[in-house]
Amino acid sequence: MASNYTGLGVQLMTTGEKAGLWGGYTNTNWEIIEQTAGGYLSQAITSTPTTLAVADGTSGDTNQVAHRVIEFTGSIGEATIVTIPLDVQQVYIIKNSSSGAYTVQFKYVTGSGGTVTWSATDKGYKILYAAADDVTNPNIIDIGMGDVTLAGTQTLTNKTLTSPKIGTDILDTGGNELMKITVTGSAENEFTMAAGASGNGPTLSSTGSSDTNIDININPGGTGVLKSGSAAVKIAGTETIFIPANGMYLPTTNPAEAASVETTATRPELKVLDFDPSTAQYSQFVIAMPKSWNLGTVTFQAFWSPSNTDTGNALIGLQGVGVANDDTSDIAFGTAVDVTDAGGGAAEDVLVSPVSGAVTIAGTPADDDFTYFQVYRNAAAGGDTFTGDVRLLGIKLFYTTDAANDA
Length: 407
Hints:
This protein is mostly beta strands. 4% of the residues lie in helices and 35% in strands. The strands form eight sheets. Strands 18, 19, 20, 22, 25 and 28 form a six-stranded antiparallel beta sheet that branches. Strands 3-5-7-10-11 form a five-stranded mixed beta sheet, with helices on one face.
C-alpha cells in the first residue's frame, strides 16, 4: 500500500506497511522534522521563477521547502519570483543575499494569496509564515520581526529607543546631513534637553558627571553671526567705549589745551584738546569698567583733527591704572602704548588712527576698580613729525568681555 506525505515531505505510513523498514523511514522523517525546525539551505535564485521543491520522504538539500532558514544567493538580472507548493505550511527565516538591484518576491506557486517582496535594495532578513490557509489562494505573511536590519532602510513608528548610539551624523528625510557628531575622547559633559510645560519654553542645559560650572559653546562658522530669529545675539567678546575730548579733564602738570574750533557758523564745531608739537602734554579720563570686562589688556583708537596741512606722523599714547575700593589714587600709571597716525593734509579733517597695541592696566585690575586713563602726545619721540597741534576729538577704547552681563 502506498504511503502518504505531508506538504514538507514527511512520510505518513499506513498500518501494516513497510514491515521491517520502519527504522530507516522513521529516521528520515526525524531528519526532515529537524531541518524544518532549524535547518539551513543556501538556494541560488538565478532565474525566475525559482521553485523550491519538496522531495517526499527525503531529507537534505533536495527537500528545499523543509528548511527553516533559507538564504537566497546568486546574481539576478531581473525582478525574481521564488515559489513554494500550495500545501506547504511553515515558518521561514529568509535572507535575500542575491546580487543585483532587483526585487525578489516569495509566494505560493499559484493563486492570489498574500506574498512577501524584498525591495531592490533590501538585502536583509524576513520572518515569514506560509499559512497554507486556502486550497487555491493561500497566504504568505510577513510577521514583521525582520523589519529592522543592520543594512536595511526602515521606518520606525512608535518605538522607544533606550540609550541609542548614533554614528557620525544625523540625516534628514532627504538624506542630507542635518547634524554632524564629533567624538571627544574621555568626554564628561553633554547637552540635556527637557520639554517645557504649557506656558514654558523647552530647556537646553549643559550637564556633566563631575564639573559644576559648564559653559555652552556655540560657534558660528567663519564670519557667521549667532542669531535668534533674524536678530544677532549679543555675546561676550570685544566691546567699545568712546570718550569724547570734552569728557576728559586736564591734569595740573603739562595739561593739553581745551579749545573750540568753529568750522563755519551753524555747522559742526570741534570740541578738542590741543597737544603741542614740541612739549609732552596730557589729558585724563576715568571709567568704572564694566564687570563683564575680562580684566585683561585694552586697545584704543585716537580720533583727532590736524591744526594745519602737514602730513607728518603724530604719536598719540595711552596708559592706565586701576584703583580698588579703599586704595589710594596716588599710584603710577602703567606702561604707555603709542599709536602712529599721519596728518591728513587738511585742517579740520577728522582722522581716525589705527588700533593700538595692547595696553596693560597697572594696579592688578579687579571688578569695581576705578580706572584712570591718561592720554598724551609723545612729541619728543623721533617718530612724531607732525608740525602742528594734534587736536584730540576723543578716544575709542576697546576691551574684552567674558560674561553675558554686568550683574
